[in-house]
TrEMBL record:
A Pfam family the protein falls into: Acyl-CoA_dh_M
Domain Acyl-CoA dehydrogenase/oxidase C-terminal: 217-374
The organism of origin for this protein: Streptomyces fumanus
Source lineage: Bacteria, Bacillati, Actinomycetota, Actinomycetes, Kitasatosporales
The organism's place on the tree of life at top rank: Bacteria
GO molecular function: flavin adenine dinucleotide binding; oxidoreductase activity, acting on the CH-CH group of donors
Keyword Ubl conjugation: no
Domain Acyl-CoA oxidase/dehydrogenase middle, chain residue ranges per copy: 111-195
Protein name: Acyl-CoA dehydrogenase
Listed InterPro entries: Acyl-CoA_Oxase/DH_mid-dom, Acyl-CoA_Oxase/DH_mid-dom_sf, AcylCo_DH-like_C, AcylCo_DH/oxidase_C, AcylCoA_DH/ox_N, AcylCoA_DH/ox_N_sf, AcylCoA_DH/oxidase_NM_dom_sf, Mycobact_Acyl-CoA_DH
Family per similarity comment: Belongs to the acyl-CoA dehydrogenase family.
Residue ranges constituting the Acyl-CoA dehydrogenase/oxidase N-terminal domain according to the UniProt record: 25-107
């Protein structure tokens, strides 16, 4: 099966066998996965049909027209955008079969246990230890800024398994059960007043060796797949025109003529054009992705996304004047998703501050673009050949 018409026919047959109106949501999503219509570029038996990623919109359009439920992708972004491609690339057949279906249906939420208090931009310096004990690994350490840890059943985790070799070489990648004894999740309140993310303490957590992803000591390479996908997941979402942060700002301009000034008009037009250029670049990146795995190019998209979100939300607050300083809700909530368009301008302004930090800071992404895209000389790295245990901390 290669063409769109055949895929459309297959989707219609699926809808006839599983009418959305009379099929329970989870049953519908499980059946969609089993029919290979979840992510058509995944292999058969794992939710896909081994087709080009560019054909997915054919399925999505048919299902949307029939009023079918989706898997609420914004709620399970870490699973879909980061855990799934990494499990697909490095997982054993057993791991793929165990984890991908409930990940895609949203029955199991995932989080990412990477950053630590002493290891963010310099992630390879991480100190959470995993020590082998027969068929299990015993994990001790602390992670931080862990989005969705309070909702998650599973985590992608990187930990140090060999302190005697240089930092990039002694790391191993695991799939961690967040319900295991020894996993403690504490909320961290952020500038929006909410606690989207958490500190996670790992004390004597036992992870069976069959939940290791990739080889022992090869975790840094495995993590690159996650990080490259993360930048695309954060910055490279394909959107309709005015689908991002520029949408509410442009709407305010159109609907509130009394707020307009010449100066703000010029700035809004400039940002509108830049947002549209970024959106079209995202389209092109999406097409490049269809042909292979994401590389460092996603860093450029994520950089543009962060800068534009901050500038546009700042402009919107200015446009609204005193009203722009109001804030809808300061109670500490534990949101299930980041909602840029459903909340007020103050929320957008505050939340977008994190866009230039999460998924790699803008400074670090500029370094990646300089070195790996433009081929400029690398920053001096004096710790490359020093054993992790001998690094200054
Ligand atoms: C909203 C949000 C959600 C997040 N969710 C998760 C999550 O789910 N899981 C997870 O593991 N992490 C998560 N993070 C953490 C995020 O990945 C880190 O905050 C980020 O990598 C930066 O690390 P840091 O906070 O330790 O800052 P640091 O690395 O300490 O950086 C401090 C400052 O120094 C600059 N800097 C550092 N190194 C260099 C360099 N070589 N060149 C130039 N400048 C440099 C940085 O740009 C920054 O301005 C989240 C963060 C945010 C804001």
């Amino acid at each position: 099966m290669t063409d769109a018409a055949e895929l459309r026919r297959r989707t219609q047959e699926f809808l006839a066998a599983h009418p959305p109106a009379s099929t329970a949501r989870t049953d519908f999503l499980r059946a969609r996965f089993d029919a290979g219509l979840a992510w058509v570029h995944f292999p058969e038996g794992l939710g896909g049909l081994g087709l080009p990623r560019t054909l997915q919109p054919v399925v999505d359009a048919e299902l949307a027209a029939a009023g079918a439920p989706d898997n609420d992708p914004r709620r399970i972004g870490i699973g879909l955008g980061m855990a799934a491609p990494t499990i697909l690339q490095y997982g054993t057949e057993e791991q793929k079969r165990r984890f991908l279906r409930p990940l895609w249906t949203g029955e199991e939420v995932w989080c990412q246990l990477f950053s630590e208090p002493g290891a963010g931009s310099d992630l390879a310096a991480l100190g959470t230890r995993a020590v082998r004990d027969g068929d299990t690994w015993v994990v001790d350490g602390q992670k931080v800024w862990t989005s969705s840890a309070h909702l998650a059943r599973w985590a992608i985790l990187i930990a140090r398994t060999d302190p005697d070799v240089p930092k990039h070489r002694g790391i191993t990648y695991f799939l961690c059960d967040m319900t295991d004894p020894g996993v403690e999740v504490r909320p961290l309140r952020q500038i929006t007043g909410e606690a989207e993310f958490n500190e996670v303490f790992l004390t004597g957590v036992r992870i069976p060796d069959d939940r290791r992803l990739g080889e022992v000591g090869d975790g840094w390479r495995v993590a690159q797949t996650t990080l490259n996908n993360e930048r695309v997941a954060i910055g490279g979402r394909r959107l309709p025109r005015e689908g991002g942060m520029i949408g509410p700002a442009a709407r305010t301009w159109r609907e509130r003529p009394e707020l307009r000034t010449h100066d703000l008009h010029q700035r809004l037009l400039t940002l509108w054009v830049e947002a549209e250029v970024a959106r079209l670049t995202g389209e092109r990146l999406g097409q490049q992705l269809a042909a292979g795995h994401p590389g460092p190019e996603g860093a450029g998209m994520k950089l543009a996304f962060a800068r534009l979100n901050q500038e546009i939300s700042g402009l919107e607050v200015e446009l609204r004047g005193a009203e722009g300083l109001l804030y809808d809700d300061w109670t500490m909530r534990r949101p299930e998703l980041v909602d840029f368009t459903g909340r007020d301008a103050g929320y957008r302004y505050l939340r977008s501050k994190g866009n230039s930090i999460e998924g790699g800071t803008s400074e670090v992404l500029l370094n990646i673009v300089a070195e790996r895209v433009l081929g400029l000389p690398a920053e001096p790295r004096t710790d490359k050949d020093v054993a992790w245990k001998d690094l200054a901390r």
